[in-house]
Amino acid sequence: MLNKVSSFLYVLSIGAVINLSHEHTYYNSNYNNDISGSKLSNLLKLPIGMQNFLRQNQHYLNQEMPDKTPQFGDTFDFIIIGAGTAGATIAARLSEVPQIKVLLIEAGSRENLFTAIPIFAIVLQINDKINWNYRTKSSHKYCRGMKNNSCHWPSGKVVGGSSVLNFMIATRGSAENYDRWAEMGNEGWAYQDVLQYFKKLETMDIPEIKSDNDYHGTNGPVHITSSSFHTPLAEAFLEAVKELGYPLVDYNGKNGIGFSYLQNTIKNGTRMSSNRAYLHPVYSRTNLYLTRESMVTKVLIDRITNRAIGVAFVKNKKTIRVFAKKEVILCAGAIRSPQLLMLSGIGPAKHLTDLGIKVIQDAPVGENLMDHPTFFGLTFTTNAAVGYRFSDLINPINSHISDFLINRMGSFTMPGGCEAIGFVNTKHIKKNNNLPDIELLFGGNSMKEIVPARAFNFKDPITQEWDKYSLSNGWTVLPVLLKPKSRGRITLLASDVNVKPEIVPNYFDDPDDVRTMIAGIRTALSIGRTKTMQAFDSQLLNITYTECNNYKYDSDAYWECAIRMLSTTLYHYCGTCKMGPSGDPTAVVDPRLKVIGIEGLRVADASIVPEIISAHLNIPVYMIAEKAADMIKEDWGYLEKSYGKPTSE
After folding, report:
1. DSSP 3-state of 151
2. Taking residues 456-468, what's their average pLDDT?
3. Which is the catalytic residue, given 223, 372, 572, 616?
4. Is 572 a catalytic residue?
């Protein structure tokens, strides 16, 4: 704990050093005219705030599930691989049945002191202790602005998985996404089928929305809130889109197209991970076992019966084999779930044979990889400091830190600095009832500071150019390609779980994806030209790069060059264990999430997504897990409709 406190104070000291030499007046919506006290007073509040925060952290630690190491040969009813968003959910739901004995295996450790602080989300993307830190294969077609032409792909390696390091943005995606799943032959996955699970998982805490009982739940484990802190730029952004004719909507309700302040997986000003939502309430259950820092090496499959019978994992340098009476459930995510299937003999036959892996089931594992590429090149400067700068926020002479530590209020409750969001259909701009193809994510800062520039692994010339504008005032909008047609793949590089797989996302392989992203950029630019945003003298900070200088500025060719250079992941990897009906040659699991051709084995995480959703994936993965838990209970005769929060006995 002392090491964590020292690290936190070190972060604060960096902020002080940066800002003492670059002091300026900046906007603080809660404390205009320094009404909260002097800068000295802010510093004096820090020890009290730290004590307060440490007490809360100890409260969280007291609710952590204890680490229990199984013995070689131990038997459980269900073994769940991965304690992330899906794994934590399914473990909590299955263990509601007292006679079910559940083992939950996690490669990472528990959450730490910093993960609860929403503003620090971007720092967590480069934290080695809780992050697999994958890299994609080098390419000249995408991520050309990143070092080695390789995208940085963060993924949670911690109890709570990627819900511990994501940006806490709660989106479902409009109904048409799920209706399309059903049309692809996935019975039971239409929107009307899954809506009950979206409602089951959530407690909607946004006052103006929670009364909509048709679309929202009020008794689920995951609390959905909206930050009370907004910069004037965020307010202006929403006025600007109204000026262009877009509505303000509850994008998780009836209308999927429109703009809004963010809905977040945050409670009482701090992150609500799947660990805190699902596992903390049941930490004392005697039928649920969690083993941490346990690296699964393969699923054990009886080759005679083609049935999954257990799991092998390594903990403390010892290999342990445990066995499942009923099922093994893979919840390791869109990268590790296909990796483990292939290491266990389930995957493309030739690929496995080439690596010396015995083939148990020929299947298109690792294909159909999808993601939401995001363009990081749109920053607008303003003539006044009406947004925020990360360097100001972490400066202890300001009141931001003490406000969060003492009251859980203020700018630190912004999820990674993001404030507002919009969903548009660039092909049918005047219609507000279509499936969106572009998301616009807004932040009231320039994103040209030290941490953002380096978190995305940009090449040195780009970060050096960005550094010139690190003290600029402004705002950023990120166009996100929601329904890409391009598909990538994940393959093994060795028959060793410690060798990370090869990731080829194939961003913008389909020319339609380029055209749609350019349309999204032009939509964002039109917002910057509105009277509302021009009141701040918003000007595009057009930092040009050598590779794109040969093209006429603002031409489609120019933007395509910029897209291939400055687009990277929004961390929404999915599709690599595709769900499909019987007879679908592209499917790995059936609509009950059972691995085709193998008994006693399911996959339940983002990898089963047959077509990517026009939304951030955290809430949809919760939904997938809630539905999977009910299907598993139903298949084994345990299903009782008990919607609501997991509770300990």
Report:
1. coil
2. 85
3. 572
4. yes
